[in-house]
Amino acid sequence: MVRLVTMLAAAGAAVLVAMTSDLHADPASGRALVTAAERGDVAAVQRLLGAGVAVDSRDNTGRTALLAATHANRVEVARVLIAAGADVNAKDKIQDSPYLYAGAEGRNEILKMTLAAGANLKSVNRYGGTALIPAAHHGHPETVKILLATAIDKDHINKLGWTALLEAVILGDGGAVHTEIVRLLVAAGANANIADRDGVTPLGHARRRGFTATAAILEAAGAR
Question: Domain tally for the chain?
Answer without folding.
Answer: 2
